[in-house]
Structures
1.
Amino acid sequence: MKKASKQKFVGSLLAATLVVSALSFPLTPVSAATTSTLKLRLLETTDIHTNIVNYDYYQDKTTDEFGLAKTANLIKKAREEAKNSLLFDNGDLIQGNPLGDYVAKIDPLQDGETHPVFKAMNLLDYDAANIGNHEFNFGLDHLQKSLKGSKFPYVNANVYVDDKDKDPSNDKNYFTPYQILERTFKDEAGKDVTLKVGVIGFVPPQIMVWDKNNLTGKVIAKDIVETAKKYVPEMKEKGADIVVAIAHSGLGSAEEPVNTESASYQLTQVEGIDAVLFGHAHGVFPGKGFDNIPGVDNTKGLVNGKPAVMPGFWGNNLGVVDMTLEQVDGKWKVADAVSKAVPIYDSANKKALVDADQTIVDAVKEDHDHTVEWVRSAVGTTTAPIHSFFSLVQDDPSVQIVTNAQKWYVEKNIKGTEYEGIPVLSAGAPFKAGGRSGASYYTNIPAGTIAIKNVSDLYIYPNTLKAVLVNGATVQEWLERSAGQFNQIDPKKTEEQALINEEFRTYNFDIIDGVTYEVDVTEPSKYDPDGKLVNEKANRIKNLQFNGKPVKKDDKFIVVTNNYRAGGGGNFPGLDGSNIIIDSPDENRQVVIDYILANKEINPSADNNWTIAPVKGDVNVTFITSPDAKPFAEKLSNMKYITTEQSGFAKFSLDLSKK
């Protein structure tokens, strides 16, 4: 008898024996000699950002494009399709929209109260969850109060208590580093088998920069990969049959540095990890943009042969990993796997693919209603529309109002201090400018009443205001880093050239008001999208002036920004937290609210302090934005609508010969 046939025969005989035994005995763990096949489905949600109800609080209307209430029905369907499944969440859960703000700031969560996200998620029977970086935005006290409402366990392995003794060998985890979930599943022969699933979680170490004020002196964060190498062997020793890593971290690559923000690729290379559920980057894997990466199978959803999935953001996709496990001589191994991200919305045909789960909507109805009432509160009026449709290609009113408010705040607060008289500049970025968040992700506020919901639309993050003291050279480099937003345009080419680098995050496209400048997009970018110096001699920023005079390297300026940027977020030259002179506890968006309340009526029209330098030649430059931009573009002489693409974005041409 051939070896394979013999094994098959023995396996069948053993299976038959066990079936007979099962008639006489209750559930018995599979013996060491048994060969068993088990199909297991892992489900993942990530980056929900408090979008429980399928409701856009900024537009004040229901939506089919996001919301856990929609994902819930995908979860139920996915469970019905599989005999064995586990459901996990990957963090960035309690912050991200006005509902999260309301529970944290307006009517703060009290001890004994259940955060609305858990009122909903507890109904879905999650098996475990990971901590995301935005969980720290409202401070550790709010985080701990929130987590008490969860009926499922949380894991994180790389955040430790700051014991201040500088001895890493005795550091204690702030959270439970991992869980070993013991579950009874049905194998392919219909037998009950016991499987121990180890679950470990990770968060970017950059939380120590991004939430410096909330975390310094309380916790520390360590490298994701090294932490995995420490704990995975321990999990296996304690009986984990398989290990699932839940990484609130982008994919990255094999060459990422220590303490990288994006470590999921490297986690697939850690011995003992069987699957990686990742997130943070708001992308979809497998999916567009992941082809031709060494070690990545973008069809089966494998990275270095291991299943991995990233299901977008705000519940717009459900991550599904289907694994076939085989048990031989008492040990389980992954024999085959495939991953996919299942959407709730067909963006090409603008069609909902699933209904909202009413039980989820009902679970948070009271919290949702209070939030809607709050965001409708009026704070003032605007004499002109405020939109962000063209915020990546020209000076923009949605950024202008923020920079105006920040400058107003600081100029008031430095009066009578040693800093009075130093010019105040103000930095702001277009937060809602499409990109990875889709064609509907833009600010569009009509002239008239401005409500809380509109201010939240203008400034979506709960950042606090900071101001830094810098010189002219730093201002120049700050803008050079921002100018990485643009692709290099070849003035000799006549074929179409896309202006915007889609790899660049729009929240790193800082505009600095108070100075004037041009961006020469025919030059290469000095910095790559991650802030790494790649073209030392390149200088895109031209004619940088203050009050009509060239900015000198040693000129002094106060630049108003936020805690993320001032503390080093985005890897901007000269910004590491050491030159902060105003360390305000006030949120930037509260400053915007106060500014509007003080002025009652505002004119947010952009002052055009920056422009793209004119390009000589017959260049065909395009950019994408929302189709809703068409009526605004018709009033401008330098842009023209071309088409609406399958992605839902609209393509426009931009005439760079005009200043």
Note: Confidence is low (pLDDT under 50) at residues 1-33.
2.
Amino acid sequence: MTVSDTRAAAEPAEPEHVPSITTWSRLEPRTRAEDLSPALEARTADPLWLLARQWQLGEFQGEDAGTPVLARLDVESARFAEVRYGPSGGPAAPLPAGRPLESAVEAEDAAGAHDLRWAAETGQELLRFLAEHGAGALRAAVVARYPIPSPPPAGPSEADEATAGYLRIMAGRAPHGTDVLRDHARGRFPGTVPVPPELSAAVAAAVAGWLAWLQAGEGPATDGFLPLVDTPGAGARAWQRERLEYAFAAAASDSVGETVLTAPEYDGDRLDWYQLDHDPDAALGAPSDAASHSERRTHVVVPTVAAYPGMPATRFWEMEDADVNLGRIGAGTTDLARMVLLEYATVYANDHFVVPVEVPSGSVTRVRSLVVTDSFGVRTLVPPAAYGAADAGRGWGLFRPASARGGPPAPLLVLPPTTFSTQSSAPVEDVRFLRDETANLAWAIERTVTGATGEPIDRDGQVPRAGIPPRAEVPGLPELTYTFATTVPENWVPLVPAPADGRPDGIRLRRVPLQQPTRDGTPVPVIGHSRVLDWTMENDTGRVARLEIPEEEVGRAGTRVVREWRLARWTDGSVHLWLARAKRTGGGTASSGLRYDAVGPR
């Protein structure tokens, strides 16, 4: 074993102000053998010689440094109070109480969450309550007034045997529960059904029991939809359909002022502190009364060394277990994470300490002061990690949100009001966005769409390729045929590149119905049936906006957007169910086989 000098001998000296990975300021063991075990064993045959060498190298000289033994931490926590759905510039609203933040941001509107199956099941419960209270004679009138519709024609639900069969069975047997709820919220039901005077009390009792079963109580309903399924509030639209992701902001207020955290590109998969960026210039109008919305606490704890299981001991000859063989850990030149971990464990492990602090859920915590007392009784006021002008945009801190303006991370500890974990269903909708370099198009492939009953329908297995149109014979070449255009599967929706209308951000992928020929010569547009591609959604001005996706959103790796049900339990024990979307990585490029003016054998 040899001891390295303070500078690599084989390399020229470098200026002191230039950082270099070939410069060291510590004496560390080095071995030229492939096996590091002999060097790590630190064998010695003459302890007295080793002590003399330590004396010569100055290792016995005392340092004016003590070990931290006590830490006094003063923190202030402020709970999130306001939330803004969508990009900057939109109105803010109070954060919904009693539900996780994911539910408030991700939940779809009532029209997407309440399908015909939900309507049929709630309608069946209404008939059961009417029968229990002696008003079963109104069954036929309620079913006739609020019928279950049949599947929409020329859609995937009509072609799906399970969906069509379910609706045929429920037609005439159960009322549309969603329509009943909507009319009741508007004060129309049960007035829309002729009720004999002798059954008025029974009908009122049955409707009250039905609403209680739906967990509505006596509170008002929003457009007739009750909290059995979490739905967004009025104007809450965080999903950006062109960017295929969520955008929102949340704010909290403490003694310093309002703190706004933005999430401009939340993909919907896992909401945590690293999804939020601090925007010092934004304001949502959070309550300025810090005394009622913030809490200041003092923690006195004993700092502990930052370690992990299996890490070597910080003292050189301290007895260790043999769970980890550091001599057999291999790291290539590009394995930077493993090299940094080993460097920390073997060299810098006794330089980092952990001071735990408990923060309330759904809050932003600001460290007001940190005073450390060492083993010599010296108290030191520890300031936050400083970031100079040269480090702007490159600073990083654990649990400290990055700056939305490109500056250093904010000195905050963020714990958003999110769930620990959620249970997700199988996707009720799955759309893949892929590039087709051969056809110079992008495609939205509807692999799974949501049926009229809310059940997923497999479009890959349901929709075969359309029939090939009649081919015209080429004069003089009877053995060849001419095809104006080949066909693509009906679940492949084209996205045509087009320049943005008055926008400086380049090319947009515009959804255009592809006119595809059939065997009888009548062109049929390929428009798709998924709600992800729904182009009837209204924008903020109330007008119907066409779907235009920025070109950079569909890269060579592709993009996948799914809709799925999510179930979670909140801190008060309540159970929350909502319908959410998530943006994930796709499966690369694809080829649709689309060609124009093709000539081939008959």
Note: Residues 115-213 form one domain.
3.
Amino acid sequence: MNFNQFVVRNTLRNKHLYMAYFLSTLMSVMVFFTFTVFAFHPDLTSGLNKNVQIGMLAAAIIIYGFAFFFVLYSMDVFLQSRKKEFGLLMIQGMSPKQLKKMVFIENLVIGFFATISGSVLGIGFSQIILWISKQFMHVAYGFYFPTQAIILTILSFLILFLLISFFIQFRLPRLTLQELLKAGDLGKGTIKASRIKSFLSILLLAIGYSIALLAPGLSVPLVMLPVIAIVVVGTRFFFNQLSVLLIEGLKNRQSIFWKRTNMVVFSDLAFRMKDNARSFFLVSIISTVAFAAIGTLFGFQNLIMEQTNGIAYEFQAQGAPQEMVAIEASINQTLAKEKMTADSVTISIYTDENNQQFISQKEYNQLAKLANEATVPVTENSAVELLSNTAIGTSKTQVKSVTVGDQTFPVDATLDTALVSAYQATFVVPDAVDLSAMSQTQIISWQPKSASREQLIAAGKTFETLPQYVFSKTYSQQSVTDMFKPVLFVGVFIGIVFFISAGSFLYFRLYSDMAMDVEKFKMIYKMGLAKSELKKMIYQQVGILFFTPIIVSVIHGAVALTAMYHIFNLGMQLTGWQVLGAFVVIQAVYYLIARTFYFKKVYQLVQA
């Protein structure tokens, strides 16, 4: 058996030792492959705007660069955890040159299998992304065999692993043979955290949050870069200084430290937070990017979608009654052709010389009932002001009274609505008010009783060919989606990629510290530690390591999304909370799965 065979067989036969690094590498390959599948997708690239194409290229470079540094970092952590193994190999006669060659070959072997496995899994992962896009964004891209993606992924990662195999040789532990052999027994000494840097962490995060939340609408983009820089530095100090200081403070409180199994959980937690500070920092920043990207894109899409009211079809005109009848008949004929039955309501909107709009209570309530929305109270001596819930960037103020002819009515309520265009002053007045002297616009609205999305879009497409403009809610929304779907799809995909990568970081760090956990729990287990107590300690430890960076990133993401909505003079929207909530749920599921597998593996080794 020659040296190369020894290295390859050693790598293949010690799969458990290399599994964490292999999985993190495989994840990087799968993510890049999935992106290239979409980058070369014929439905996505045909007729694509040049700016979007540039964005796709930039995204590919970002993902590839991220994959390079992620694999490099993972390999570095992997090597640092193998100091004792390297010492044993050198005792057996392996020279430093052969050690570097062994690492080079190992990395190529792992890289080869990770590239092949990642490409295969990427095909399935890409289908999941396509399904999610169809369900939640109504973006439908068909399946195709990704020949270009396979070739590009294999070539790109062959180059990547060759480069990493070369650079990683310079990251081998530079210790004496004795230090390598005793690497697991030397301990970590004492740990200290800087109080000044800890205070700076709080100060910088407070300043960054304050500027982001208090900046007025259009100034948000101007302060974005300084805020990002301040928050990034503050986050760095938080993980490698403040978190350590807080843990050491808890250890000094005997009522907490000596309670049940807390002593074991907190004993080396400060060291682990310090060791994992770089990982946690990267996870929090990456997750924040994911939150901000997806929350912004979905929020922007929802803001556009809210421009359409709850009525399926709507036609308005100022024509003669006979013309309106003919147009209505034409529209009804189209609906019948699409095999849809619909209820309809005809209302009139009146405009005075001051450009104020008026609608009677009876007609507005008929329209509201058709759309299944809130009605206005029926009164004889007061009016209701309608405010547009789609007026982005405008302040909403209520007037105290409105004059119609020689009558003045107090405005005792307001109502946010999209049923009537309310970008100008619009009021619902009592039915007895005479509005006939004003200019009149008739609006006919149709609401199908039961129809599929396909039927609604088909009818809306037919209405586009009519000489008169007929507004179609579903067709308009689909047109907006079709217009923005490449950008939306790519943005959401990158967000998902970053979040999955963040989870991979945490998973890899967890398993890279397994040997240390096993040794610690072995000693305690021999002293009579129960299985339930061991499970509780591991669950607590894994939970702290998993959720600390996620909680930080959720706070960062909430601030970032709130600042984004301030551009439109809006507060934090439901869409933003939904995005943050969805990622927290995903992370919780990730944690439940990871802790279960981790406990089983640790318990198995502890009993061995």
Note: The chain has three domains: 1-186, 189-311+474-608, 313-450.
